[in-house]
Amino acid sequence: MEYDLDMETKTELNKHHKSSISGFNFLYLCNGYAGICGLRELYNNKSFSINNLLVFTYGGKDNEEVINFCKKEQIKFSLDSINSDNAFQLIKHFRPDLLISMHYRNIISKKVLKMSTKGGINLHPSILPKYRGCFSNSWALINMEKEVGITYHFIEENIDTGNIILQKKYKINDEDTAHSLFFKSIELGVKYLVEAINLSLDVDFFGSEQSGVSSYYKRNLPYNGIIDNAWTFEQKKAFVKALYFPPHKGAVLIKDGKKVEILSVDELVRESI
Q1: Do 201 and 163 sit in the same domain of this protein?
Q2: pLDDT tens track for 210-269
Q3: What is this structure's pTM?
Q4: Domains identified in the chain, total number
Q5: Is residue 121 domain-shared with residue 248, that is, in the same domain?
Q6: What is the CATH number of the domain that holds 175?
Q7: Phi first, then psi: what are they for 131, rounded to 5°?
């Protein structure tokens, strides 16, 4: 599914060019839609070689495309946990220059990070240091932000605190939901993947320290998915959008002692009468 970015962002994306990434070994850790999109972006780069890539992903339906793509194009891949002994041996033999994390779920150990010459980089769906952790776009909607974005940052021991490589923002439209922002963020992140890699490989580049007000959210469903009847209508509206992410369950309204799933603002209006 595709979602349109605003014209200013599209113009910026058109300036993006694919630089050389030849001669480097990449350890690519990925999951889901972001994982397959990033993998295809690397594969389609003219200077890319399948011999310079080792992929770690997960089993299951979410990663069928990643696994099938690797098999078809003969790209080396593993379903082992990145912190396992078997993964350690594979990585040691591969000798990576850079680790790339695209929505990879596991925390990556310091031992693994040290095995890459330039460490690791991660794509995060927010303008760090705001919205570290999970459900970044959902919380941005709940907090009624006007814009969101993506950050490529170096990976360190703490979560989402590493030096910033690059950041890109885009506006939140009135019709946006957590679902639409998810795809917009991935589209933007994938477009700047090669640029982030090239910056990271520069021996004189170390990124910039994160600055400003920070926030962190755990891997818990916001407010357990329940609409607070004490909220204003605008707060309820924002929450409905923040929890819209099919096929997952939407926001729940307690009405007359019963739970009612609310999937749209129109449904919220009807149930609020």
Answers
A1: yes
A2: 999 999 999 899 999 999 999 999 999 999 999 999 999 999 999 999 999 999 999 999
A3: 0.89
A4: 2
A5: no
A6: 3.40.50.170
A7: 60, 45
